Structure formats: C-alpha cells, structure tokens
Write the structure tokens for this entry.
Amino acid sequence: MTKVAVLGAAGRMGRTACEAIKADADLELATVVDPAAVGESICHTTVSSRIAGLAETGVAVAVDFTHHQAALGNLRWLAEHKVHAVVGTTGFSAAELEEIGSWFDPPAQPNCIIAPNFAISAVLMMRFAELAAPHFASAEIIELHHQHKIDAPSGTALATLHRMEQASQDWHADPTTQETLPGARGGVGEHGVRVHSVRAEGLIAHQEVILGGPGQSLRIQQDSYDRQSFMPGMLLAVKRVAQTPGLTIGLDSLLGV
Ligand code: NAD
C-alpha cells in the first residue's frame, strides 16, 4: 500500500481527495495537513499544522490542493525530503514551473506531476481543441465556474488557448469596430483566439470551445458537475508518479493522448 499525505486537507478539493484516497484499496491516507483545521479529524485522520511532520511518517506521495504560494513552499520541502508530489493547485507562472522543474530534476528522485485539471474529460477536451485548431479560422473559448473562483480566466482556459494558438496562428481578425459595452468581446490571445469567463452560483467547472469554418462549426463542451470528476485523474497520478521521472505537467502522457 502506498502511503499518501494530503496537503490542504480541509479545503474543498482536499476533503474530496482524502475521501477518494481513503476509499482506494491500494492507497493509505497516512497524514493530512492544513493549518486552518489543526486537530480536526478528516477521514479518521487528525489534521496536523505543518508539512514538516511528514518526515517521520514514511509517506511516499503528497497531494497538494492548497494555494499557489503555499504550494511553492510545500513543493520545495517535498523535493528536499524525497517525497513524490501530485499537485492540483493552480496559478503557477512559467518561471515558477521552470524553478519547480529544477527541484524535481531527474535522474534524482522524487518526481512531481502538476495537473491544472484532473478531470479526464477536460484533458481530452484540450487535446481535441488542439487537434481541431488548424482546420478552422475562428475560435472562441467560454469557461464557466462557480461564484467563489477569484482568478479569470481559468487555468484550463489559458492552457487551451495556448495549445490552440501553438497549433495554429492563422485566425480571422476580429470584425468588431464598435464595442458598446467594454469587455464584451472578452480577453484575447496573442494570435486572436478569444476567451470569455462566466461566474455564477450553481456552476462547478465547465468549458466550451467553439470553432468556426465555412458553413460549419464545431463545439467541444466539457462539464465537471461535481468535485468527484477530478478524483480518477488524481488517483491515476498518485499511482503513477513514482514511475514518471522529473516534472510532468498535465495528464496527457499518463493517458497516452
Ligand atoms: P480551498 O481554499 O477550499 O482549500 C485550500 C486549503 O489549503 C485551505 O483549507 C487552506 O487552509 C489550505 N492551506 C493553505 N496553506 C496551506 C499549507 N501551507 N499547507 C497545507 N494546507 C494549506 O481551495 P480549493 O477549492 O480546495 O482549491 C485548491 C486548489 O486546487 C486551487 O488552486 C484550485 O484552483 C485548485 N483546483 C484544481 C483542480 C484540478 O483538477 N487540478 C480542480 C479544482 C480546484
């Protein structure tokens, strides 16, 4: 059985991750860490305050669902203490990802998998959008999230945008000459693909990619209706991280797409 720790265990994602790990016959939920809930019991495991406590627990893999700055500190500690990391926390810049890569530099162990979206449907949606991009002249991305999300656009929308614009730079110019309500045309990528962010109570995480060509359109839609949608991808990463050298971004290579 692989011993797993959850960092950010008292958060929305952390609690769901604890339940999924506890229910998996191959994994043992050994330690849970969250400074906001010290002493509380989550999945029959007492919450500790600091990652430093992990050193004595024999944990092989730590799952991080915290906040961007906290995750950076956690990752440095995990790299130094030879604990594999599986990270769901979002918001890392390209420079930060490069620095994290230097901490998890093969052939030295441990390894790290960072997946801004663990939903397998979202991983496939991004791949399908990237494959479709060179065959169309117009594209717009609409991402929709719950009312507590503080950043816009979502990390998934940004990743989709970058992948589509890498696959094609040949997009129609925007026809709009009069934007009566500022912002109505959304954000725009380097090569002209537009992104729109919707925030509303009742939503979890959703995205639609609309591609247009002569007399036709393709709509790729992905919906996470509940936090369970992230668990199969997270569990896959936890089970594979020890055999996945260095830093891996996204689940594509684990899924073979
Ligand atoms: P949340 O605010 O509910 O939970 C974060 C928790 O981290 C809090 O309980 C906080 O006390 C704790 N925390 C802060 N610093 C810590 C530290 N140093 N050590 C341990 N715990 C610490 O947030 P959430 O909704 O659970 O989301 C967490 C992260 O996961 C966000 O970055 C979010 O964007 C991301 N997310 C990723 C996916 C995915 O599929 N990868 C899906 C949903 C959300």
